[in-house]
Amino acid sequence: MSKATPIGLKLTAAAVLLFAACAASLVTAPPALAKTAVPKPVLDGSAVAVPDSYSADTAQQIFAEGGNAVDAAVAIAFTLAVTYSDAGNLGGGGFMTLYVDGKPYFLDYLERAPQTATRDMYLDDKGKAVPGMSQVGARAVGVPGTVDGLWEAQRRFGKLKWKQVLAPAIRYATDGFKVDARLQKARDDAATGFAGKTNFDAYFANLKAGVNFPQPELAQTLARIASDGGREFYEGRTADLIASQMYGHGLVTKQDLQQYKAIWRQPLSADWNGYQVVTAPPPSSGGVGLIQMLKMKADLKQAFGGLDLNSAPYIHLIAQIEDRVFADRQQYLDDPDATPVPLDKLTGDAYLAQRADEVSPDEVPGAAPVKPGLADATAEKPQTTHFSVVDKWGNAVSNTTTLDGSFGSGVVVDGGGFLLNDEMDDFVTTPRAASPASASGTSATTGDELNTIAPGRRPLSSMTPTLLLKDGKVALAIGTPGGSRIFTTIFQVMTDIYDFGLSPADAVAAMRFHHQLLPQKTIYWEPYHPLTGDLAEQLKAKGYMLEGQSFNGDVQLIRVDGTTPQPVADPRGVGVGKVFQ
Ligand code: DON
């Protein structure tokens, strides 16, 4: 839309004026502003930790225009759909954990299976999974939730006009933005897998480091959403474009889009270490996993006593905890609208104390009987992305959003200019009954139908946008991409800060490792902080195998220390932490 640039420019100019006015108000506190219904600031500033610099600039504009954390979060998410194309999205989904006016909320805008999806849709006639079918191309696409999620959040809690929060994204799509080396590398890595199978190259061949990258079709889509509202994506011209793209290739129809609604759910909450943890409930497995890990570690205080952070005995105890957590994940977690999940039990003190009792420094890795892990749980691909926001009024947003794989299914909506997800791959795509020789190869358990594909069902996610509250105030906003590594990463950063007293920056930079039930006895390490030398030898002597993984995580956190927000962007990525006075 040709008007997009002038709107963007006008808003930038308005933003500068407003910013100047706000800056002046800090000094003179003019009564005209004081009389509005704007609550008094309780923090020294607003802050963000975001995965790229463009989204940080967007946040600056939104705060300067008087927006709150939710306005900033929605504007950041739309910006990332333009500037962080491998994970930011319109055609994906995610979770948002919020704290607004002293109350916690959770918004589930995860993708859902289309109405004609079937349990065995990725199997051939011999019951074997067709390689790549749930990951690349139109059949991998679930009904996207992002736009409805952002629309719901902003309508309910935002202070600015809807058009204002879309303006920065429209500007980046219209004028382009300078591509960085990270994004080009992600593009190059993904392009090979999509070659000849999707229209990815027609849209992203020119994504080159140092080069300006405008996306005119995406700008038009964003402009339509800006002028007609979030439901345009589900009921307007954008819905028509998605349905045409899918027709004859994928399953998502106009009816699927019309029926999609983001859902406000009760966030998962637990007391830990003097804080209230507010985190993601099912269909995420991450909140349950995080709470289980935190509480079991606290129960095992004696066993952990005196152990150095990331020493071999420390890693061993955490790995034993992780075995229990991933066994429960496999056995009990699902879309709560498909299967009731016993949340109170799984996160209850008595149960977790009993589970922690099973953990011992002498346990031989892999010797204890374990329940099967998810067949594809270790095969996480980058990318997903997370950002955290707090505003000076004490509101906070922790948001994780995903296309699942890097650049999703590789399918771009022709005429719409945006990528569609491959979130269907998060279902159990090879149910054991249909394929007894699948990776776990174990006998049937009550978990066998869990997380299989069914119309309208949500896949089990690991995204864990989390907040910590202390005395009713936000103390931490945290999250990361990383599939099943998401909550083990958040756990490590939280315990590094609160149990070991590391500064937030040191905690985010510290070594991280990952372990889960299957493959047994395997400790994964990350390129950023290889696990080598004596430590590696000690773990091997204990019976573990060490395996490097290609993905590092990308934690974006904000700790609030008294009234001072301290944002930290993971040094593994290209993110930015910024405070806005
Ligand atoms: O919902 C989930 O858990 C996955 N779709 C997230 C994928 C992910 O984090 C990959 N990123 N590294």
Describe the structure.
With 581 residues, the chain is of the alpha+beta class. The chain folds into 2 domains: 46-265 and 384-426, no CATH class; 268-380 and 463-580, Serum Albumin, Chain A, Domain 1 (Orthogonal Bundle). It contains 20 helices and 16 strands. A 7-stranded antiparallel beta sheet has the order 4-3-2-8-7-1-16, covered by helices on one side. It has a 6-stranded antiparallel beta sheet with strand order 5-6-9-10-14-15. It has a 3-stranded mixed beta sheet with strand order 11-12-13, with helices on one face. Helix 4 runs parallel beside helix 6 and helix 13 (286-299) crosses helix 17 (349-357). The radius of gyration is 23 Å and the shape is globular. The protein starts with a helix and ends with a strand. The model is unreliable at 1-36, 371-380 and 433-447 (pLDDT under 50). 6-diazenyl-5-OXO-L-norleucine (DON) is lined by residues 380, 382-384, 402, 404, 423, 426, 461-463, 481-483, 486, 551. The site of 6-diazenyl-5-OXO-L-norleucine (DON) has 16 residues, from loops.
User: What low-confidence regions span 5 or more consecutive residues with pLDDT below 50?
Assistant: 1-36, 371-380, 433-447
- Strand order in the largest sheet: 4-3-2-8-7-1-16
What bound compounds does this protein have? 6-diazenyl-5-OXO-L-norleucine
User: How large is the share of residues in beta strands?
Assistant: 5-15%
What level of helicity do the residues show?
25-40%
Shape: globular
Strand runs, count: 16
Instruction: Profile the largest sheet.
Output: 7 strands, antiparallel
